[in-house]
Amino acid sequence: MAATRPHKLTSVKALAESPALSSIPSIYTFPKHTNDELFSDTEESIPTVDFSLLTSGNPDERSKAIQQLGKACQDWGFFMVTNHGVPESLMKAIIEACRGFFDLTEEEKREFQGKHVLDPIRYGTSFNAAVDKILCWRDYLKIFQHPQFHSPNKPPAFREIAAEYSKRVRQVAKEILRGVSESLGLEDNYIGKTLNLEHGLQVMAANFYPPCPQPELAMGLPAHSDHGLLTLLIQNQIGGLQVQHNGKWVNIDPIPNSFLANVGDHVEILSNGKYKSVLHRAVVNNRDVRISIAMPHGPALDAVVSPASRLVEDERNPPAYRAMKYKEYLELQQGSMLNGKSCLESVRNNVI
Ligand SMILES: O=C(O)CCC(=O)C(=O)O
Description:
The structure is a single chain. The chain has one domain (49-345): Sandwich (Jelly Rolls), CATH 2.60.120.330. Helix content is 28%, strand content 21%. It has helices spanning 12-17, 51-54, 59-75, 88-102, 106-110, 158-183, 190-194, 265-270, 326-334, 342-345; strands at residues 48-50, 78-82, 121-125, 139-146, 200-209, 221-224, 230-235, 241-245, 248-251, 259-263, 280-282, 290-300, 304-305, 324-325. The strands form 3 sheets. Strands 1-2-10-7-12-5-4-3 form an 8-stranded mixed sheet. Strands 6-11-8-9 form a 4-stranded antiparallel sheet, with no helix packed on it. The chain has a two-stranded antiparallel sheet with strand order 13-14.
């Protein structure tokens, strides 16, 4: 029987808390794909970048760290960032502040329900409930925090904690992006200058995945890559993130007090495909609430992103992607169903 969408979409948190729920409504059932079961048995673990070495005053240490960063971007597209200087207490406080938001009443949360993907505060469920054919087992709160800082006005401490957290995380992202520029053989401020990072977009995307009675049928977030340049993610102590590596899914258990970083579609475009944005997804479980906070850092909304000219000078290496304004890309990706790397595919040139 065809799945029918409830008339009024409620949060998955409210659904999960309904006492009689023993199975999930059919609209939350994802079809299995043949490669879903391909799990890596690799002993190889996700690379780590020591932020204190990346920002070291010792040129040898820094250049070694940049080499490691470049290798991590090329081999995995994902890496852990340790020794980043953001206090652990602040990382815990922002997770609890987000939990506090999701614990507000349904009516209070609905005040922040956004209508358009560029609304600076957007609470919702699934990915894009207006167009999703299958709903994700996930509620979210997305807030633009730079170039203008926005925040819901409840719960009470949210604004202050979010302002401090986003400022500290942005510093880390800026330094890593300087390292990414250098690792590509460009000037260290190439990304910052060309894409106007002074006015770059920083989004806080808080994800709430309640326990699910049939986790094997549902999906927190299906496979996708991220828009923007660099995402820095933290989570409560509950696992659920899987990353695609060499065609297989790998479970990622972040090192406590570290960030999980991944390069976004716009680094893939800028590097002309040398660094790839990587598919990842969030699975759910039947025991614990999982909260993750992903912070994508992107160009300025009006910046046009194209492969760096220095990387496409050679005629054997023509531009593999079309230039596109970041804002248009964002509207396209966030306004559609999440579907792997289909948005990036739409700006790919047909080069041999
Ligand atoms: O919850 C996670 O670990 C993944 C989140 C994510 O991929 C996203 O917010 O885009």
